[in-house]
């Protein structure tokens, strides 16, 4: 009996050791190959779990632990444009140089920037793009809802596809379920090419289930870009007249020019990844010569397909180097220590820091997790503003020299896990217009008053922060 028990224990220890070695080998290999940088507590948690419970932890790691993947396309490294501006030392040129080091697309000309004042205007532009496209429509979204708004847009896309326009629709694999199971089959039957980005049931063991495509872009004919925080659902545009719920406040914009064509190339890269296909051999050249009246902007793609944490790096660098003002609007604010420190130190240096967000968002976990960071910002002298309505806009303005607008929230999921898309605007008039849009929303906001937390609240906040980014 003793011998049998010892034999069984020996076999179990051997098997356990093999699982531990396999798990740690996979952990080290993926971290090295994909240049994964994790929070120290997350790294320790994964290693301890792999040693103690490798049979459970290894499948979970394969499902949730990898946050970088190989990109289908790279836009290349430093450009001639970045080199030409190397003697200048403005925030715009420093940001362009930093972006070029991270292999982001070169800053490109655009014209006819239109910042949508509200959902009504945003929807009018979107309808015009779909109805006016001559050759192609590329549309990427997180949610395509099965509601009045979603069904109307689906009808327009089907009609254009039947008219011979090449229409491609890419919806996130999780967001497709959140939208209420839109009838995507009827879209396909009408000739719309539909693809789901990383469907969870087909990708659970390939380390991608936790990596969601939050990019929202519509490109018509490679010339006209519509982008911003709005999902394709009623609450982002029109609200619900029946229940009396107003639309969410959100920020979107459209523009023309080479920047739109670069966004189309990003869509092609995402499409190739989602379909496990290849990029077209013939990529149309982009004319980077500015037209009369054009300005310069830069595509900032962030996420698992980027070697660096591009948006996070640009934000931290911009906040640390800010001199006059930081203006942020975001629905969710759960920063990591470094990002929070960069904002707090800016406030302590005398930089005016304004953070605009909803008093109550649509995510309870995010609301519970934000208070520790908000108290630290307030104690550093920053100004936090709560809006009575839900605001879903995402934008950052630094020193009236740089504006970033698009799809990314200031939380760890957006900055480190999601596929996100922002546009950096460097032209002063564009930066001023984004500033004025945020300030118009700020008029109806009330200042945040920090309250010292009790023991149980402090404990709950710590738990929420731990849950916010352990995977």
Automatic annotation (TrEMBL):
Which residues span the membrane?
12-30, 42-64
Q: Which InterPro entries match?
A: CLS_N, PLD-like_dom, PLipase_D/transphosphatidylase
Q: Where is the PLD phosphodiesterase domain?
A: 209-236, 387-414
- Record-level Gene Ontology MF annotations: phosphatidyltransferase activity
List keywords of the entry alphabetically: Cell membrane, Membrane, Transferase, Transmembrane, Transmembrane helix
Q: How does it sit in the membrane?
A: Multi-pass membrane protein
> Could you give one GO CC term from the UniProt record?
plasma membrane
Example GO BP: cardiolipin biosynthetic process
Query: Is Secreted among this UniProt entry's keywords?
Result: no
Q: Where in the cell is it found?
A: Cell membrane
Q: Which Gene3D superfamilies does the annotation name?
A: Endonuclease Chain A
Q: What's the main place this protein lives? A: membrane
Q: What is this protein called?
A: Major cardiolipin synthase ClsA
Entry EC number(s): 2.7.8.-
Question: What organism, scientifically named, is this protein from?
Answer: mine drainage metagenome
